[in-house]
Specification:
Layout: H1 6-22, H2 27-30, H3 33-40, E1 42-47, E2 55-56, E3 62-63, H4 65-74, E4 81-86, H5 92-97, E5 103-109, H6 112-115, E6 119-120, E7 130-135, H7 145-149, E8 156-159, H8 163-170, E9 178-181, H9 184-192, E10 198-202, H10 203-211, E11 218-220, E12 227-228, E13 231-232, E14 237-241, H11 246-261, H12 264-271, H13 276-279, H14 286-290
Parallel strand pairs: 1-4, 1-5, 8-9, 8-10
Antiparallel strand pairs: 2-3, 5-14, 6-14, 7-10, 7-11, 12-13
């Protein structure tokens, strides 16, 4: 066999290096979610593991409002198997971006900051609010963000990555009064240990915490007003997709409209102790909530 000259070998090596860095890494990296579902029939959802939005069951399955509704939507889109990954709330969007999961179904609110990162579905159910868990009798008289902001002795807990963290700071609560935790277990533990005077959580999860027979001596602060910049906050939960998978998101939206019409969404919400008002969608759209950042 004739040996290649040094110059020719160098040229071939350069071509090989160029191809390695220029060509797609493989089918998986270039494949859209729509293509993946068509070829494999699988969908991987990301959960925070918080009742009632998305939880794992004793038999290794998954339950909760959003997984159940998502399953009813995607069955008609070619999804034959739904897999799941449970993680800290703050890891949901990074995991979506890195393709570890295909969709966030973890009780995520639509916010302006998130609209810049993901493609949201239409809101699932109606507007919801956050609650504050406090000691029984509410001895610190906490009924809103304003009460915490004006009392420097108070400490409030929240979940790292939760939308309500933005609201706490926007309502004027100094950062040194806010303690952030990776998950519900750590946050509730801080409440028990008197490290915080109030724990802000979405109302569904707050109700679930108080239903735990091991949690005694606490209650929901009622009333509790989320006033930020002079306006009471209303929150809309949705599924989150990668922006390049907006076509699959659009298909999910069409199926969601059908499930709203036939009462499926309402039934699932009420199954998990939500009111009919919580379950009934409004005319508010993801595009309206995201504005120019809608994808």
């Amino acid at each position: 066999m004739r040996k290649l000259s040094y110059g020719r070998r160098a040229a071939l090596l350069a071509i090989a290096v160029f191809c390695a860095v220029s060509l797609p890494a493989g089918k998986a990296s270039a494949e859209t979610l729509k293509e993946k579902v068509a070829s494999t029939g699988t969908l991987t959802i990301g959960l925070h593991g918080a009742w009632p939005y998305g939880i794992t069951t004793d038999d290794g399955g998954v339950a909760g409002i959003l997984p159940e509704i998502l399953k009813s939507l995607t069955a008609s889109l070619g999804v034959k198997q739904v897999k799941f990954e449970v993680m800290d709330f703050g890891a949901l969007i990074p995991s979506l971006m890195s393709h570890r999961i295909d969709v966030v179904a973890g009780g995520m609110y639509i916010t302006n900051a998130r609209c810049k990162q993901v493609a949201f579905s239409e809101p699932v159910g109606g507007p919801q609010g956050n609650s504050a868990l406090v000691k029984a009798g509410n001895p610190k008289n906490i009924h809103g963000y304003e009460d915490i902001a004006k009392n420097p002795a108070l400490r409030v807990g929240d979940i790292r990555g939760a939308a309500s963290v933005e609201y706490l700071t926007a309502a004027g609560i100094p950062k040194d009064q806010i303690l952030l935790f990776p998950d519900k277990t750590a946050a509730v533990g801080a409440l028990f240990a008197n490290r915080i005077d109030a724990l802000v959580y979405d109302t569904g999860t707050a109700i679930s915490i108080l239903k735990d027979p091991n949690v005694k001596g606490f209650e929901r602060a009622q009333p509790f007003k989320e006033i930020v910049n002079g306006q009471e906050m209303k929150h809309y939960t949705a599924f989150a997709f990668r922006q390049e998978d907006a076509d699959f998101r659009d298909a999910v939206n069409k199926a969601l409209a059908q499930r709203n019409a036939d009462g499926t969404v309402e039934k699932v919400f009420m199954k998990y102790s939500f009111s009919k008002q919580d379950a009934t969608p409004t005319s508010v759209t993801a595009k309206q909530l995201c504005g120019s950042d809608y994808h």
